[in-house]
What we know:
Subcellular location: Membrane
Number of helices: 9
Distance between the termini: 140 Å
Number of strands: 12
Region (Disordered): 1-82, 306-338
Oligomer: single chain
Strand order of the largest sheet: 7-6-5-8-2-1-9-10
Shape: elongated
GO cellular component, one term: membrane
Order of helices and strands: HHHHHEEHEEEEEHEHHEEEE
Largest sheet: 8 strands, mixed
Strand content: 15-25%
Helix content: 25-40%
Organism: Salinirubrum litoreum
Radius of gyration: 49 Å
Mean pLDDT: 72
Amino acid sequence: MSAGDGPPSGDDGTGSSAGSDAGRNESDRPAESKTDARNESDRPAESKTDARSESDRPADADPTGRETPPPRRASEPSDSSDENLLRRFWYAEDGPLMFVREVLTSVLAVVAVGLLLFAISGVWPPMVAVESGSMEPHMSRGDLVFITEPGRYAPDAAVGDTGVVTHETGVQTGYRTFGDHGSVIIYDRPDRFGPPVIHRARLHVEDGENWYDRANPEYMDASNCQQLQYCPAPYAGFITKGDANPQYDQVSGIAAPVQERDIAGVARVRVPYLGYVRLGFATATQAEVGDEPKHARRLQFSTIVSSRNGGVHHPAESSAVRVSGAHTSVSTGTPAVA
Length: 338
């Protein structure tokens, strides 16, 4: 047999054998293929159900079906730290935050009340605490008196722009405050160092006026003008007196005639007993504070009125009282701070 007539080459034979094997393998697996096909055909409902479930499930749902919050952008803070701190500060029921909150609210309340009183009165401090009794029975120790600047709420009977009605004019017009005719004023004494005074304005005199005949002789230890220190009047001003004092201030030596520029305020309203708080604080602090200038004392929330001789103690000057004849004098001690 020649080479050309021989059987096919080994490669061709191998290919034929492989083809036969492949055919047999394919023919041997018809049942498996059909089974897989049946399995696939048996699951259409499940696949559709899953598809519907996937389509119905919200985009932000997790695989278990629970909704989850949408993812936050990197630029969005989870919670504002300022808002958190403010919320904790406002709603804290104990601890340092609550303490700080209570202190701040108390301070703000006091400041608000002070600003309101200043807006109404126009002077600072807007209140004086009565320390003793030169204005009794109409003002007593422990009273807290609200005052206004002289020209504010001035009645028609007031002297010029002072807002002050004298006792003399009050008798004629019927104007009364604190149980008697005329205005009660708080005035400074520029000719001496010391506290201002709270007393009633009795007369208004002109420069060089002989006011002896206009005055009540019961309040003067003199028989004529020449026996009085401030008669004739050295300048225009007010003659004053404490309601419980036996003499005019200008007769007893408490003060010279009160000029308009020296009037610090006009008394308007008194609150009994509330001044004791101020007096008690002054007593507790007076030993710890040294002398201070008058303008510094003006910054206090209230002043103290020592009224046996009419001394108004800016904020809380202690006083050693000694009786001398018909009136009481006060030696001023160390001022205290409100």
